[in-house]
Amino acid sequence: MTALAATFAKDPEFRGAEVRLSRITRRYGDLTVVNDVDLTASGGEILALLGPSGCGKTTTLRMIAGLVAPSSGDITIDGRSVVGLPVHKRNLGMLFQNYALFPHLTVLENVAFGLAMRGVSKAETSERAREALRLTRLGNFEDRMPAALSGGQQQRVAMARAIVYRPRVLLLDEPFGALDKKLREEMQIELRQLCNSLGLTTILVTHDQEEALVLADQIAVMRDGRIEQAAPARTVYERPTSRFVADFIGTSNFLPAVISGESGGLTLLQGADGRLFASAVPNDLTAKDAVMVAIRPESVRLSPGAVPAGEANAISGPVLRTVFKGQLLSVWIAMPDGGEFVASLPIEDTVQSNPQPGEVWTARWASERTLVVRGQ
Amino acid sequence: MTATVSPWLKAIVGVILLIVVAPLVVPLLMSISDTAYIVFPPRGFTLKWYGEVLANPEARGSFLFSLELAAIVTAISLALGIPCAAGLTRYRLPGQDAILGLILSPLIVPLIVTGVALLQLFSLLGSRATFAQLIIGHTVICLPYVIRSVSASFVLVDRNLEDAAAIMGAPPHVVATRVIWPQVRPGILAGAIFSFIVSFDDYPISMWLADGDHFPVPLYLYTVIERSFDPSIAAISSLMILFALLLVLVIEKVFGISLARLAS
């Protein structure tokens, strides 16, 4: 596929465009759906807009596409403002949640549409459309009607149709929502390879944190119309800055705490019941901020017995229940204040010592895995 | 469909078909009767009544006039109805339901009342333009059919397809012709057929507005029935039925759209 992609991207100069949003706001009456958003997708990068429904991510994408006009702010593509430029002149590609294939056109005609709009000759149009279909592994389906294809195949047609005229930016609106899990994972990997090999700048809207992590170089987490955190995908996972982000991407145990000091690069915190925490993860919070300590279940090591008094980054209590999840065993421990603390053990680690409900166990985690986030 | 159809359902469908189709077959049979008066079942076989009707300049004139009227009315109904249906379905307008109710009201008010009302209006205005009055009167009753079937197809238009086309570089007029038109075409054709047939068959409106020089077929048929009772009446009726049938068949052949699918 990479070889094909190379022949497809005949133009070695081709690079995806940089997309920049500056102070973008969109209001509907009294409702501010997108609020003062600054965002940049560099050329060739895959950016995911991630958030729950109603957070403004789709509206943001539609503003980039030109389907919705911003109330204020500026959008530039390769440094040129596109606000006021009609949709059809923006040279973008887009994948829709329901694929939006033209039901009255064959697969080949669907793919050829964008080329025909660009005045490409008939012969070249059909050659390039066939090439795009081969690239998405649909070479034998040219003459079918979209209704005769499976969901995954329709998705591939939509993909071929969106990239065939080599847009500078590809926009994806929850593109895999309608596919089952296994197919979705396949398509995600395929799409990622395709975008990377074509050098397309890609902006993706999703509410699925896993999809964002698999596909994106950069993730912008949105909440109530604002960007909560925008950073490389791994950073967003490993160093969430707010409780919202830590909660939205992955799962976390949240423990209330106050920052009590700093020592040797560690942030020291005091929690309820005299618990102590030490975090080696950089943060820009101070003693005045309301903070939480967030611990990922997979960062935790479990051992039998109670925690010695005064030990930091540890919590102990009776095991409430365990749930087998295939590769992982989830263990819930009751905390003295009535809360629950969940840990995930790799299944190999449970061969020797298997926590049983009622037994007292201790959870420990490294200061490198102790996240300090803003939030109550 | 492999499910077995219950014999009761078959029987009911059969009865309904009989009720709908049988009255149409009767004039066809009566029109070939070789008798001087209408009789059923027909006796003998002749096509002379058709010859008589077609040779009659009054009958021919009425038929051509009805065709002309129906064509003009349909053209006007489409010209008014398509933008109206598009506007009512694609935008949220203040008083939308009231507008739709007003447009569809001729379907509810008895046609004879609409006809009288129009006659009073035109005489108040002192109008003597019979042809224009007939066109207006028929348009009032044909427009609801056009708007109903065109609206139904506009409602089903997938807006994502328009967005997709625009993103791929299609300017608005191309979106209209290559994306919206294929989706609404069946509804527009259905509306056109309904409009044409409603105008062609109309009696209660024409009755008030026509004059000797503008005399549609249904009125002509009525005057013939009053004067005589020979099978030429059945021949005229049959011609009207066959004409409507022909229209539907032509549309199916030319546009490849079956009325059965439109109705579903």
UniProtKB/TrEMBL annotation, chain A:
Any one Pfam family match given in the protein's UniProt record, by short name: TOBE_2
Keywords in alphabetical order: ATP-binding, Cell membrane, Membrane, Nucleotide-binding, Translocase, Transport
GO molecular function, one term: ATP binding
Domain spans labelled ABC transporter: 19-249
EC number(s) reported in the record: 7.6.2.11
UniProt catalytic activity: ATP + H2O + polyamine-[polyamine-binding protein]Side 1 = ADP + phosphate + polyamineSide 2 + [polyamine-binding protein]Side 1
One BP annotation, GO: quaternary ammonium group transport
Top-level EC class: translocase
Gene3D superfamilies: 2.40.50.100, P-loop containing nucleotide triphosphate hydrolases (3.40.50.300)
A GO CC term attached to the entry: ATP-binding cassette (ABC) transporter complex
Superkingdom, natural source: Bacteria
Assembly, per entry: The complex is composed of two ATP-binding proteins (PotA), two transmembrane proteins (PotB and PotC) and a solute-binding protein (PotD).
Entry's family note: Belongs to the ABC transporter superfamily. Spermidine/putrescine importer (TC 3.A.1.11.1) family.
Matches recorded under NCBIfam families: potA (TIGR01187)
Summary of the function given for this chain in its UniProt record: Part of the ABC transporter complex PotABCD involved in spermidine/putrescine import. Responsible for energy coupling to the transport system.
The name this protein goes by in its record: Spermidine/putrescine import ATP-binding protein PotA
Organism: Skermanella stibiiresistens SB22
TrEMBL record, chain B:
Listed Gene3D superfamilies: MetI-like
Gene Ontology cellular component list: plasma membrane
SUPFAM superfamilies: MetI-like
Compartments (UniProt record): Cell inner membrane; Cell membrane
GO biological process entries: transmembrane transport
InterPro entries: MetI-like, MetI-like_sf
Membrane topology, from the record: Multi-pass membrane protein
UniProtKB keywords: Cell inner membrane, Cell membrane, Membrane, Transmembrane, Transmembrane helix, Transport
Residue span(s) of domain ABC transmembrane type-1: 63-251
Transmembrane segments: 12-40, 63-86, 98-123, 129-147, 188-209, 229-251
Pfam families: BPD_transp_1
Top-level lineage group: Bacteria
PANTHER family per record: INNER MEMBRANE ABC TRANSPORTER PERMEASE PROTEIN YDCV
Family: Belongs to the binding-protein-dependent transport system permease family.
Annotated protein name in UniProt: ABC transporter permease
Organism whose genome encodes this protein: Skermanella stibiiresistens SB22
Taxon lineage: Bacteria, Pseudomonadati, Pseudomonadota, Alphaproteobacteria, Rhodospirillales
